[in-house]
Structure formats: structure tokens, C-alpha cells
């Protein structure tokens, strides 16, 4: 039995696994869609639906932030040597976590509920723009092994999701 050399399609499918930056961007896109869904449900006065979506947003953001703080940011800090940018990102996480905690402890018919989710959405959009526009570009130019980092991040994400279930 002979083995065939890897074809372009085989090589391509191997790279179809997202690297660490791709993984984080996928999370960003997922949460953006959830915020849009929340807005639609809020306009329809679907309290039950919007609370369900808001809970999903809070879970996604909590896991995402934890993975960044435990794995991605420390690696990025070493690779790009930009403490100011990473310190700002961590402060932004702290503020987002505070809002997430407030939203998680509220009733969906609280008069401030929609406003807090909207502010969280705006805050996350700002944070995402900075990460994708600055940090991720610097990390991609560094010598950081983003494929290996993705493996670590995925394992941790699965662990955290399992703990939620």
C-alpha cells in the first residue's frame, strides 16, 4: 500500500482549522449576531426571548473573556510587548464583566434591562474594534504560534462550556 502525497485540497482542509486569532474573531461575530437578535426581540417586547438571548450573550462573553485573560493575553503580552494595549483590554474586560453581572441579576422586565444590554453591546463593539484593528494585527506579525495557542484555547473553552452545562 502506497501513500499519496498531500494534495492541495488536503493541505487546504488542514488549514481550515482556525488559529487563535480566527477563533476569537468567530466568537466576536457570534456575539454580534446575538446582540442583533436581542434588539429584534426587545422591539417585539418578547421578554422571555430577549432574556434567553441575553443569558447566551453573557455566557459567551464570560467564556471568551476568560480564555483571552488566561491564555491569549499572556501570550500576546510576551509576543508584541505592548503592555498599554493589553492593560486597556483587561480593564475593558473588567467593566464588561461588571455589566454582565448586573444583567444576569436582573429581571427581563426591569426598566433598565434593555439599556444595560445595549450599553454592553456598544462597549463590546468598541473592544472588538480595538482588538481586531490593532492587537490581532500585531499578534499576527509576531512569532507567536497561533495554531498551538488555538489548541490550548479550544481545550479551555470546551472545559468552561462543560462546566456551564
Textual characterization of the structure:
- The chain has 165 residues and is mainly alpha-helical.
- The chain has six helices and no strands.
- The longest helix has 34 residues.
- The chain is elongated and about 50 Å long.
- The N and C termini lie far apart (45 Å).
- The N terminus is likely disordered.
Core attributes:
6 helices; 165 residues; 0% strand; mainly alpha; disordered N terminus
In short:
The protein is mostly helical and 165 residues long. The chain is 82% helix and 0% strand.
How many angstroms does the end-to-end distance come to?
Answer: 45 Å
Report low-confidence residues grouped into runs of 5 or more: 1-14
Quantity of strands, as a count? 0
Taking all residues together, what is the mean pLDDT? 91
Q: Kindly provide the radius of gyration, computed on alpha-carbon positions and rounded to a whole number of angstroms.
A: 18 Å
| Gross geometry | elongated
The count of helical stretches stands at 6
SSE diagram, text form:
Layout: H1 8-15, H2 20-43, H3 47-80, H4 83-104, H5 113-141, H6 146-164
